[in-house]
Amino acid sequence: MGKRKFKAESKRLLDLMINSIYSQREVFLRELISNASDAIDKIYYKALTDDSLTFNQADYYIKIVPNKADRTLKLIDTGIGMTQDELEKNLGTIAKSGSFNFKSENEIKDGHDIIGQFGVGFYAAFMVADVVTVVSKALGSEEAFKWESTGSEGYTIEPAEKATVGTEITLKLKENTEDEQYDEYLEEYRLKEVVKKYSDFIRYPIKMDVTKSKKEEDSDDYVDYIEEETINSMVPIWKKNKSELTDEDYENFYREKRYGFDKPLKHIHLSVDGTIRYNAILYIPENRPFDYYSQDYEKGLELYSNGVLIMEKCSDLIPDHFSFVKGLVDSEDLSLNISREMLQHDRQLKLIEKNITKKIKTQLLNLQRDERENYEKFYNAFGRQLKFGIYNEFGANKDVLKDLVMFYSSKDKKLVTLAEYVERMPEDQKYIYYATGDSIERIEKLPQTELVADKGYEILYFTEEIDEFAIRVLMNYDEKEFKSVSSNDLGIESEDEKAADAETTEENKALFDYMKEQLAGKVKEVRVSKRLKSHPVCLTADGEISIEMEKVINAMPDNQSIKADKVLEINPSHEVFQTLKDAFESDKDKLNLYTNILFNQALLIEGLPIEDPVEFTNNMCKVMVTSA
Ligand code: ADP
Ligand code: MG
Fold first, then answer.
1. Average pLDDT for residues 173-202, to the nearest whole number?
2. Checking phi first, is residue 300 left (phi over 0); if not, alpha (psi -120 to 50) or beta?
3. Is the CB of 98 under 6 A from ligand 1?
4. Residues 478 and 500 in one domain
5. Separation of CA 35 and ligand 1 centre (Å)
6. Which of 71-80, 242-251, 540-549 has the lowest mean pLDDT?
7. Is residue 388 part of a domain?
8. pLDDT by residue (tens digit) across 325-340?
9. Residue 40: which region, alpha, beta or left (left: phi > 0; alpha: psi -120 to 50)?
10. What CATH number did the domain enclosing 602 receive?
11. What is the CATH number of the domain that holds 325?
C-alpha cells in the first residue's frame, strides 16, 4: 500500500508537536493513556447493552513496555481497537480529534502554551518519537492492521498479525540531542512519575514490569527480579481525600478532562453524605468559552454512577444561571440502569442540583470577598449570565443572584456590588440610582445624571442590555428601591423646589402645550426638567418602559415594536428657555423650528436615531443663517 498524506490541518499540528519545547513533552504519555482508557470504556459501554459481551474487569488494562535495547516505548491496551477504516479516519486526520477543531491558525502558530495545557491527542506521540507504529485489532474483527508514520511525511496502513483485540502503539524514540534526553522515557522512575502526575485516576490498571530486588535465601546477596506492577492508584480524584490533593492536581484534572483551556479560578470538591450520597468536583473557569452566549453552548456536568460515566452533559445538575460551571458528579445512589428519560425526572438529581447550587453560590461569594481580582475576571466573563438569571423565570432565582452581580459606578469607575453601594449611601439618600447607556463614557455625559451626581450620590452605570431588565425584576436591594436618573420623581427635590417647579410649569403651560402639539405622536409631554443643571434639554420616559428598554426590545429579532412614553424636558434656567418664550410670543415659525431642533438634539443625546436627518440639518442651517 502506498504512502498517504495527512490532511492539511493535521500536518500543521504535527509540525507543532515535532518542534515542541522540552517541558511539555511528557504529556504525550497522558494522551496515549487517555486514548487507551477511552478505548476500554467503549467495550465497557457495549457490554452494558449487548448481552453477548461480558465485561470482566480483570481482562482490561493498559501496559507500558519500555525497551532500552530497541529504544522503543510500547503502549498496549485491551480496548476496542480500530478497523482499517478507523485507523485511516482517526489517525489520518486531526479533525477527528475534538481538541483542535476550533483552533485558529494563529493559535496553532503560537501553540507553545496549548500543548501543556490541554489534550493535543494522538499526535503528541511525535513530540518524542520519530516513528510511530500502531497495530490494532477491532472488536468483532478477524484481521489486524498496522498504521505507521514518520511524522509529516505521511503514513502507511497494511495488514498485520495480532492475536487479541486491542491496540499496541510503538514509539521509536528520537535520538538524544545535546539538551534533550528522549530516552528518559525508557526509565522506570520517569514513566512512573508521569503516570502518577497525569493519569493516576484512570480507572483501569496501568501496568509496567518493574525491577525489584530481594535477598536470596541462605545468602546475603540480593538478586534482581521483574514483577508486573500497577502504577496508578485507580482511585478517581473525586473519591480521594481533599487533604491528599494539591491545586495542581485539580488543575491537571481540569485539563485532562478538557473542561477548558484556561486555568480554573476555583475548584469545589464536595463529598456529601446526606439523603443522597455523592462526590463532586466543580470548577469556576476563568475564560468564557467562545460559544458561551450562543445557542451551541450546552451546559451540564458529567454524571457518574459509582465511578462509571453514565452521561457526559447532564443539564439537570446545574441551573442555567450557573451554566458556566464545569465538572462532575458521582453518586453511588444512582442506578446504572437508569435510562436517560428517567434521569430527567429524577428526584435525586434535583436534590443534588439544589445542593450544588448552594455551594457554588457560597464559593462565588468567597471569591468575591477574598480574591476580588479573580472574582472580577470571573464576572467579566460570566456576569451577563448572572443578570439573565435574575431576569429569567420571573425572578425565581433573584435571591440567589443579587449578591453576585456587580455594576460599574460613578464612584471609582470600578465594579461594585449592590451591598457595597448600599453600605456607602449617605443617610439622606433614599434610592439606588442608575443610568443606562451604551458605554461608561457615554453615560457620564448624559445630562440626566447631572442633578443626582451633583448631590454626590453614586450612580450605577448600566451598559448591558440586560441590566435594566434585571434590575426591574429585582425591584429593590436591602429595601432600597432602584431608581433611574431619568425617572420623573428622583426623590431629591425639596418641598420648596417642588413648589417652584410647579409654578414655572403653570406659568408656561401654554408654551409647553404648544410644543407638545408640534411634537404630536413623538412625545407624550413637554415639561420643566427637575434634573438638568447646565444642559438645555433631555428625553425621559413616563411609565414602565424606559427609553433604553424600548431600544433593546425593538432591536430583538422577533420584531416586537413598543414605544416608551417619551417626555421632552426643558431646563428653565438655561438661556434657551427664554428664547423659546420669546418665540412663543412673537414668531411661531421660529418656535416650530426650535422645537424640532431641540427634540432631535434630545434624541441624539439618548443615542436614538432622528427621524429626518436632512430636515434636521437644514433646520440647523436656517438657525445659523438667521442668527448670523
Ligand atoms: P481524541 O481522543 O480527542 O478523540 P486523539 O487524537 O487522541 O483524539 O485520538 C483520535 C482518535 O483515534 C480517537 O478518538 C479514537 O477513535 C482513536 N484512537 C486513538 N487511540 C486509540 C486506541 N488506543 N484505541 C482505539 N482507538 C484509538
Ligand atoms: Mg485522545
1. 91
2. left
3. yes
4. no
5. 5
6. 540-549
7. no
8. 999 999 887 755 445 4
9. alpha
10. 1.20.120.790
11. 3.30.230.80
Q: Which residues contact 601 (CB under 8 A, 6 or more apart)?
A: 536, 537
pLDDT at 100: 42
> What is the CA(199)–ligand 2 centre distance, in A?
13
Q: Quick check: is 386 in a domain?
A: no
The residue among 208, 230, 252 that closes a domain is 230
Residue 378 lies in a domain: no
Overall average pLDDT of the 229-258 stretch: 90
Within 8 A by CB and 6+ apart from 580, the residues are 511, 515, 570, 591, 594, 595
Q: Which ligand is nearest to the CA of 34?
A: 2
Q: Which atom of ligand 1 is nearest to the CA of 99?
A: 3
Question: For residue 122, how far is its CA from the centre of ligand 1 (angstroms)?
Answer: 6
- Does the C-beta of 382 come closer than 6 Å to ligand 1? no
With a cut of 70, say whether residue 94 has pLDDT above it.
no
Distance 159 CA to ligand 1 centre (A): 20
Same domain, 250 and 354: yes
Do 449 and 509 belong together in one domain? no
Which ligand 1 atom is nearest residue 75's CA? 23
**Best of 16, 27, 34, 35 for a ligand 1 pocket test (most atoms within 8 Å of beta carbon):** 35
Q: Which of 300, 395, 402, 297 is nearest to 344 (CA)?
A: 300
Q: Mean of the per-residue pLDDT values for the chain? A: 88
How far apart are the CA of 270 and the centre of ligand 2, in A?
28
241 and 316 housed in the same domain:
yes
User: Which ligand gives the minimal distance to the CA of 136?
Assistant: 1
Cell of 626: 438667521
Residues 199, 121: one domain? yes
Domain boundary among 230, 250, 266: 230
Question: 266 near 332, Cβ under 8 Å?
Answer: no
| Strand arrangement, sheet containing 166-173 | 155-160, 144-149, 129-137, 166-173, 72-77, 62-67, 206-215, 222-230
Which range marks the domain in which residue 365 is found?
237-373
**The whole model's pTM is what?**
0.70
Query: In total, how many domains does the chain have?
Result: 4
78 Cβ below 6 A of ligand 1: no
From the CB of 90, is ligand 1 less than 6 Å away?
yes
537 and 435 fall within a common domain: no
Cell, residue 171: 514509539
Residue owning grid cell 427637575:
530
Alpha-carbon distance of 396 to 473, in angstroms, equals: 10
The residue nearest atom 3 of ligand 1, judged by CA position, is 97
Cβ of 10 less than 6 Å from ligand 1:
no
Looking up cell 475564560, which residue turns up?
287
* Tens-place pLDDT, residues 564-580: 899 999 999 999 999 99
Q: Which amino acid is at 343?
A: L
- Domain of residue 99, CATH code: 3.30.565.10
Q: How far is CA 584 from the centre of its chain?
A: 58
| CATH code, domain with 422 | 3.40.50.11260
pLDDT of residue 48: 79
Q: For residue 107, what pLDDT is reported?
A: 43
Q: Are residues 96 and 203 in the same domain?
A: yes
| For range 77-105, the mean pLDDT | 70
Residue nearest to atom 8 of ligand 1 (CA): 97
State pLDDT tens for residues 120-142.
Answer: 678 889 889 999 999 999 999 99
Does residue 387 form part of some domain? no
* pLDDT-derived band at 190, boundaries 50, 70, 90: very high
**Both 275 and 202 in a single domain?**
no
In ligand 1, the atom with minimum distance to the C-alpha of 81 is 25
